[in-house]
Amino acid sequence: MIQIQSFVFSPFAENTYVLYDETNEAVIIDPGCLMQSEKETLARFIEQKGLKVTMLLQTHAHLDHVFGSAYVKRKYGVKMYMHKNELPILASVESRCNLWGIRGYEPVEADVFLDEGDVVKFGHSILEILFVPGHAPGHLAFVNHDQRFIIGGDVLFKGSVGRTDFPLCDPAALQRSIKTKFMTLEDDYQVFAGHMDPTTIGRERRTNPFLN
């Protein structure tokens, strides 16, 4: 059974996730740890639980989701997985950090590209890949149907949806991704987003004012 541990990191209040199962194999999704203390918090949890990190997964490559990616790759000797359409976003992170005066970011390169229909495996667990562009051109989501949850990044939030005022965003594509991928899941699926608290598909279907 997959356990989900979340951490809120950086001034952007980004949700970083560690998923692990009874084998103690684990994946890290969207490491937003910018400060050294945040990196130590993440590492301490992994050490205390005796976890073996097997891969680094990115829903997308906006700066707040990759602040700690180079650290995770180096610390645990793992590869970084994302969609190839995120390469321009990833390449722009350092310049955006410099523009906004954000210190501490270490540039990182992707190693493996994922797409719709792929699966990633760790321990006894499987995550299915959904391609959900809009907020970012290569945005991915990670679904586990046995436990009925989705790690959704910045697509669908509790009472909101992802921003579309950044470069390479597409508002129409975001609505399509939500309608054709998220809203096809049943109401009890939990949504673990890139910001804010978890929610459910049913709650957002009934109450989210941003859904067409």
Ordered list of secondary-structure elements with their pairings:
Layout: E1 3-9, E2 14-20, E3 25-29, H1 36-49, E4 52-57, H2 63-66, H3 69-76, E5 80-82, H4 87-100, E6 112-113, E7 119-122, E8 125-131, E9 140-144, E10 149-153, E11 156-157, E12 160-161, H5 171-182, E13 190-193, E14 199-200, H6 201-207
Parallel strand pairs: 3-4, 4-5, 5-6, 10-13
Antiparallel strand pairs: 1-2, 2-3, 7-8, 8-9, 9-10, 11-12, 13-14
Organism: Runella rosea
Cofactor: Zn(2+)
Domain Metallo-beta-lactamase: 13-195
Main-sheet strand order equals: 1-2-3-4-5-6
Note the main sheet. 6 strands, mixed
Summarize the amount of helix as a percent range: 25-40%
End-to-end span in angstroms?
A: 35 Å
Number of strands: 14
Q: Radius of gyration from the CA trace?
A: 16 Å
Strand content: 25-35%
Structural class: alpha/beta
Extract low-pLDDT stretches: none
Looking at the overall shape, the CATH architecture is: 4-Layer Sandwich
The mean pLDDT is: 97
Total separate domains: 1
- Number of helical segments with 4 or more residues: 6
Pfam families: Lactamase_B
Domain Metallo-beta-lactamase: 13-195
GO molecular function, one term: hydrolase activity
Cofactor: Zn(2+)
